[in-house]
Design goal:
By secondary structure, the chain is α/β, with parallel strands linked by helices. The chain folds into two domains: 27-176 and 310-381, Response regulator (Rossmann fold, 3-Layer(aba) Sandwich), CATH 3.40.50.2300; 179-305 and 394-407, Response regulator (Rossmann fold, 3-Layer(aba) Sandwich), CATH 3.40.50. It is built from twelve helices and 14 strands. The strands form three sheets. The protein has a seven-stranded mixed beta sheet with strand order 7-6-8-9-10-13-14, with helices on both faces. It has a five-stranded parallel beta sheet with strand order 2-1-3-4-5, with helices on both faces. A two-stranded antiparallel sheet has the order 11-12. It is globular and about 65 Å long.
């Protein structure tokens, strides 16, 4: 059985790229309508080997549904960018066992109904080998069951939701730490470093926000505490004024924000006109987009991360990522979300390499599951006991210079 002990794809052998068999475009992948803009990486038609969906003589086809428009669009665009950078890197070196990797990305605007229709299209019309890089909890909640029932791998969704950590989901392979782990780190640092015991939560009013809220509640409960308040706001809006009024009335020492960058930035800017709690946001917020929106108001805001700093020169995979990103899109700036997409792409490449030329979905999943320790050039994953590779949570703080800095402990607001 194929296994993946170590993913070290920094130096790939030069493999000959097989000629395209036909020049016709894959119409279903190339056409786009409202809510489902297709990537420009749509592949040409070729013959599938052994009727294995998405596996062709000269390429392997992957699908992604993500927010490419709307208030959360930067998350989807950056996740796609990182995956494409990884795929471009291996394709330039000859592909995986002579096959190029292709990605079809469809826009769901961070809405579950569009994610559902996109996923069905990718599975039924495009017949992709696997789904990769779904962005969000509410969208993954509808997409993952479709992949599970179809026997299609559901790889590295950009969410830390607990329901995706269910061991019965045999098709799901998570890369990142969970929201429960992120909120546990937040509460540990707030209580131990600053002695804070009055913590409020502002959350997106859907399954994502509720997952973060529950994680914060459980972390506080373990310390004999409860939130001093928990206030929702509608998804895909910046409608945080109701929550803001409650924050001002309760005057908490800290606020945990479970949302994307636009509403969280709105909350911080408006709240700081009246009160000055410690603000903390989970990684899904989109750190670079949040920092840009906050501008000078961002100093002192903390964000938990599930991947290393994208400019850390001491981690080999970060150096690989920066080179791959520069080669694929020289104008792109490195960031946490695209780094996570790159890691997702590298993990996928490792599984494909382990299977050899005779590729199947089951071989691919087994290659990941049967490997207790996976090193993506220094970023360690472990699938020995569950379907989640990394348990790492990193704490960052927006500095006065407008940049994110790695920190070990919290410091009180000045």
């Amino acid at each position: 059985m194929a296994t993946l002990a170590t993913v070290t794809t920094r130096h790939w052998p030069k493999l000959a790229i097989l000629a395209f068999i036909a020049a016709l475009a894959l119409a279903a992948a190339c056409q786009s309508g409202p809510g489902d803009a297709a990537s420009t990486d749509s592949p040409p038609v070729a013959l599938m080997t052994d009727a294995q969906p998405g596996v062709f003589d000269d390429h392997i086809l992957f699908g992604q549904s993500a927010a490419l428009s709307g208030p959360a669009r930067q998350l989807g665009r950056d996740m796609r960018l990182g995956i494409q950078a990884a795929f471009n890197e291996i394709n330039a070196a000859g592909g995986v066992h002579g096959r190029q990797l292709r990605l079809i990305s469809l826009d769901d605007s961070y809405e579950p109904n569009l994610a559902s229709s996109n996923t069905q299209r990718l599975l039924q019309a495009n017949r992709v080998f696997a789904l990769i890089g779904e962005v969000g909890t509410p969208t993954s909640r509808v997409a993952a069951p479709l992949a599970q029932s179809a026997g299609v791998p559901f790889l590295a969704p950009f969410t830390g939701a607990e329901f995706l950590r269910d061991p019965s989901l045999s098709q799901v392979v998570n890369l990142r730490a969970s929201y429960y782990q992120e909120t546990e780190e937040m509460v540990a640092r707030l209580t131990e470093d600053l002695g804070i015991n009055r913590v409020a939560v502002v959350y997106q009013n859907d399954s994502f926000g509720l997952a973060g809220l529950e994680g914060a509640r459980l972390a506080l409960e373990r310390r004999g505490l409860t939130p001093v308040g928990a206030w929702p706001y509608p998804r895909n809006t910046t409608g945080v004024k109701s929550a803001l009024t409650s924050i001002i009335a309760q005057d908490p020492q800290a606020v945990i924000a479970v949302g994307s960058y636009a509403p969280v930035a709105e909350l911080v800017v408006l709240a700081r006109r009246e009160v000055d709690p410690v603000f903390m946001a989970v990684s899904f917020v989109g750190s670079e987009a949040l920092t840009e929106k906050l501008g000078p108001d961002g100093a002192g805001v903390y964000v938990t991360q599930t991947v290393p700093l994208p400019d850390d020169p001491n981690i080999p995979v970060v150096l690989d990522y920066r080179k791959a990103l520069a080669d694929y899109r020289p104008s792109a700036s490195p960031g946490f979300v695209s780094l996570e997409g790159y890691l997702a792409g590298r993990l996928t490449i490792g599984g494909l390499q382990a299977c050899g030329p005779d590729l199947s979905r089951q071989c691919f999943l087994n290659a990941l599951r049967d490997s207790a320790a996976v090193s993506i050039d220094g970023f360690m994953l472990d699938y020995a006991d569950d379907n989640q590779g990394s348990d790492k949570v990193f704490l960052t703080r927006i500095g006065d210079d407008g940049k994110l800095h790695l920190v070990d402990t919290l410091t009180a607001p000045q």
